[in-house]
Amino acid sequence: MTSVPSVERSGGIGTLVTGNLLGGVAVASGIAVGGLLLERLGGTSVAGLGQAASVLGAAVAAVPLAGVAARHGRRRSLALGYAIAVFGGVLIVTAAVVAQLAVLLAGLAMFGVGQAVNLQSRYAAADGAAPGARARTMSIVIWATTIGSVAGPNLSEVADRFGRWLGLPGLAGPYVFSIVAFALAGAVVAVFLRPAVRSSAPAVRSPAPADGEADESRRTVGAVAALRWAAGDPAARFAVVLIAVAHATMVMVMVMTPLHMQHHGMSLQLVGVVISLHVLGMYALSPVFGWLADRLGAVRTACAGMLMLAAAVVLGFVAASASEGSALTALALIVLGVGWSASMISASALLAGTAADHVRVPLQGATDAGMNYAGAAAAALAGPILAAGGFRAVNVAAAIILVPAVATAVPPSADAGRPRTKRGTTGTARRPSGPDPVREKPPRHDDERGLPPAVRTPASG
Length: 461
What we know:
Blueprint: E1 8-10, H1 14-42, H2 49-72, H3 74-98, H4 101-111, H5 113-127, H6 134-154, H7 156-165, H8 173-192, E2 193-195, E3 205-206, H9 214-217, H10 223-231, H11 234-263, H12 268-283, H13 286-296, H14 298-321, H15 326-354, H16 357-401, H17 403-408, H18 413-416, E4 438-439, H19 444-449
Antiparallel strand pairs: 1-2, 3-4
Helix pairs in contact: 1-4, 1-5, 1-6, 1-8, 2-3, 2-4, 2-5, 2-16, 3-4, 3-5, 3-8, 5-6, 5-16, 6-12, 6-13, 6-15, 7-8, 10-16, 11-12, 11-14, 11-15, 11-16, 12-15, 13-14, 13-15, 14-15, 14-16
């Protein structure tokens, strides 16, 4: 295994914002017509497999991409992910031409890797950010997805006409736009993302290494070992669980809302408005929650996010019981999106500021993989739950999903327990519980580069 390279970021945040904006356009353009293309090739019964394939593709790619980032840097990882998404788009267009369902599903899975890259770009933004601005930096990159999510579907009709002009089958054109957008995003990242000086966090206290262990503590670890490390650190454990739980709760309610609304005679146009408001709730207020997480603490903001998610499922339950529940349903979906945003940004910032250097990147990849697997499972279970008990049962199930996050929550003082800079902002790492700490002597080559010493974990035994 190799040592963790210096983290990378853009010369300014603009590179990551531009990449995420283009990636958001690409993802949204494809998602808007993916189900329709699947229905055309395989019938209504397989129309829902497109989203599942994309989500699973993002989940499977998260850990390998994090491994590439840990060994070779964020630039190579993000550029590779966008390249895979481009190839997925090419497969989708090919499947539309040759009318092959299996090729289409494979393409959609690779296309979903673009979503994994968009998510991991928030961690790239945090890598070089000052400790007191980490959450705000991440939130700005996430906010860029708002533009892509709104612009992408609105380009579908124009893209479809363009595809037909090229001689492609109907519904293939939007994926041509996606291919171009992913390619541009990859080019921006590959050209403009540059290595950055590590954030000037204070040295971290950690248990003294035994003979021969210092070098081992500087090496990257796998996803399983990173999750094992997080299990021993209360704040990291809470962040990992909350990211998965918040996403699963949001997905379970969101994917069943259009069906619930149509079952109650609401128009397709109204369904579109409600989902659009939900997406705006997910991304538009991201900078606000980033500021709150830096100002008030990531744990406090995370707890507020959990409360909003709980309020959303209560509103959804009440809306399902109301005779005319369109306004309540819209309100529930807005609150659901806002709660997801607060939870995701604060938990991601807590994770970035908690994990030791050699654990952080693999742990971020494992966390995003778990988030996507949780979302896929929630989506798969939501349909049978809706059929058995209606929209009220869906919201009850979503409330139950929140329980693990509540059970693993840490007190707000967990933010204060991390190392702080001279200005009082939280530092970059915290150690797992263990014996009385002593300051680790920094290796000579780190001193020569002016970098802080790597953080080691206690020996596994």
